[in-house]
Amino acid sequence: MTTKTASTAKVVTQMALMLALIIVAGAFALPVPAIGVPVVLQNMVIMLVGGVLGKKYGSLTVLVFLGLVALGLPILSGGRGGAALLIGPSAGFLVGFLLCPLVEGLLFQVFGQQHYWQIWLVYWLGGAVLINFCGSFSLALVSHVSWGAGLKMAAFYLPMDTAKVVVAALIHHRLQRQGLIG
């Protein structure tokens, strides 16, 4: 096996493992009927995908996940799936999922990742804040309210997502210290 083939196999394996983690995280959802978008664990794993796989492969992994959701596989939190989700209250959050690895990669270039606080900041800005910011647009549109009101609805998720950032950054930092990610 050539070095290039081994490297490609390693990347594909990592992508498949991270995709599996995103899917498994979909089993954990806490419904929020008033808003229509559940509290999920998948966004924490999406943050890790960006941190572990980087901009290119992280974005590709999330794109494959969203493609499977659009095809109707019930792998989104709470066993949801189907193209209708791409135009419902969750649509903006899903766009945030897709942008997360790209933005995290760019932020890691700016802030670095030598210390836990740098990783935390990147995950918080490029993960929790970005995903909720994107989600505010679809919440406002679907709820027929102003974008400011949509932003307030999305802000409901930020404290819980900040707690997920703490966990994701700890996992990233630990994997990095073990030499499993760059």
Automatic annotation (TrEMBL):
Membrane-related topology note: Multi-pass membrane protein
GO molecular function annotations of the record: biotin transmembrane transporter activity
Name recorded for this polypeptide: Biotin transporter
Cell compartment(s), UniProt: Cell membrane
Lineage: Bacteria, Bacillati, Bacillota, Bacilli, Lactobacillales
Stretches that traverse the bilayer: 60-77, 83-108, 120-142
Main location: membrane
Keywords from the UniProt entry: Cell membrane, Membrane, Transmembrane, Transmembrane helix, Transport
Gene Ontology CC entries for this record: plasma membrane
Transmembrane helix keyword on record: yes
Recorded family membership: Belongs to the BioY family.
